[in-house]
Structures are given as structure tokens and as C-alpha cells.
Design goal:
Helix content is about 50%, strand content about 20%. By secondary structure, it is an alpha+beta fold. The chain binds adenosine-5'-diphosphate and magnesium ion. Magnesium ion (MG) binds near residues 123, 124 and 136. Magnesium ion binds near residues 119, 123, 124 and 136.
């Protein structure tokens, strides 16, 4: 069953040795140079697999990786039954404040350990078994750059303010509070976020 056909990847609900699984296949981009495209897809796939395992080793919840197939540009991972954090927050279910806090803690733990996610939005978070999971690391990178972390937070904030404007106040009071709790370098990153926002306003 097709779950999603995106610009970069197709996702299907499959079985992996009897377990509910998701297959994520990176699809070629017609407008990109063929060998370059092939290389880029492999880099993204490797990045995704590596960052998933690093995040897991930090104690964060991510899907279990069942298989990585570089020839077929394919990952097979655990299927997480549940709703996205985006849907839960929009429906006002699941206690928005604790969920917002947990999202901030998740981002803080990632950044404190040198992982930038690259697409940090509530669509890429799934609440499975009452726990928050992070997915879709394909745009991520390992870096200590405050700028890169600021850009990551900026995306989270933008996505939050557009999808969860009713919960606008929770971004500061819960998301950023959770972030500060987990990331000792939070002050610099949050200052960078403000700087990036100001840049956006005046240019
Ligand atoms: N492990 C998973 N379990 C359940 N659903 C998933 C899983 N991985 C992805 N999905 C679903 O497929 C969608 C797209 O997957 P994602 O990895 O975010 O790819 P894309 O890069 O296209 O955004 C997700 O938003 C989610 O709905
Ligand atoms: Mg996604």
C-alpha cells in the first residue's frame, strides 16, 4: 500500500519477516544529471540510516531500521502505528503542552549531540504507543554549527506558527523551554534563531 509519493521518495506499507514495516525508496529526479542524482540518492540514504542509528544511541525514539539496500536506494524500517504530532496538536488531543515540551526536548537532545535534522517539523514526528518518535532524517547532518542548528530551529518555529497558530504561545513556553533543558548550548542557538529571523525581516 502506497503511503506517500513525495518529490524525493516513495513510501509503502510492507511486511518485513512478518513485521509491519515501511519501505522508503528514493526515486530518481528527471531533471538531475543521472550519475550525480544516483550519488546524491546514495548519500541521502546513508545519511538517513546513520543518523537514525545515532539518534537511537542517544536514547531518542526512531523507527527500527530493518534493512538498507544501496543498490535499490531503499530503506526498510519499523512501521509506527499512530498519528503525527501535527495532527494531534491540531486536534487538540494528547495534551498539547506536554507534547510541545517533549518536542523541544527532542530537538535539544539532537542539537546537543551534534545532529541537525534538516526537516524538523511536526509532520516528521509520530506519536506511537504514547511516545514521540522522530522520522525522516534524509536532510540531516552531523555538525556543531550554531548557524545550522539555528536554521533547524527556525524551520521548527515557522512550521509551528503556521500549523499550530492556536498554540503559538507554547512555542516559547514549552518547545523552547524543553530545548533549553536538553541543550547546554541553547542560548547561542536561540540567539542565532532571532538573528536569522531579523535577517528575514530586513532583507
Ligand atoms: N516508520 C514509519 N511509520 C509510519 N509512517 C511512516 C514511517 N515513515 C514514514 N511514514 C509516513 O510517510 C510520510 C513520509 O515519510 P518521510 O520519511 O517523512 O518522507 P518525506 O521525505 O517524503 O517527507 C511520513 O510523514 C509518515 O506519514
Ligand atoms: Mg517527511
Amino acid at each position: 500500500m502506497l503511503l506517500k509519493r513525495g518529490a524525493e521518495a516513495e513510501l509503502r506499507r510492507v511486511e518485513w519477516h512478518g513485521r509491519p514495516a515501511v519501505e522508503k525508496v528514493r526515486v530518481p529526479k528527471a531533471y538531475r544529471h543521472e550519475t550525480l542524482d544516483e550519488q546524491l540518492r546514495k548519500v541521502r540514504l546513508r545519511t538517513e540510516a546513520r543518523l537514525m542509528s545515532e539518534a537511537r544511541s542517544l536514547g531518542l525514539r526512531v523507527p527500527i531500521l530493518y534493512d538498507i539496500d544501496l543498490t535499490g536506494n531503499r530503506l526498510v524500517m519499523e512501521f509506527l502505528e499512530g498519528a503525527s504530532a501535527k495532527d494531534l496538536l491540531q486536534q487538540g488531543r494528547g495534551g498539547p503542552a506536554p507534547l510541545a515540551r517533549e518536542i523541544g526536548e527532542l530537538a535539544g537532545t539532537l542539537h546537543a549531540n551534534g545532529i541537525v535534522h534538516g526537516d524538523l517539523t511536526t509532520s516528521n514526528m509520530i506519536v506511537h504507543d504514547h511516545r514521540l518518535y522522530l522520522i525522516d532524517f534524509s536532510m540531516g547532518e552531523k555538525t556543531d554549527s550554531v548557524e545550522a542548528k539555528g536554521v533547524d530551529l527556525r524551520l521548527l518555529k515557522e512550521a509551528w506558527m503556521s500549523a499550530h497558530f492556536v498554540l503559538e504561545g507554547l512555542f516559547e513556553s514549552e518547545v523552547l523551554a524543553g530545548y533549553r533543558e536538553k541543550n547546554p548550548g541553547a542560548t547561542d542557538v536561540i540567539a542565532k534563531l532571532a538573528e536569522i529571523e531579523a535577517r528575514g525581516r530586513y532583507t
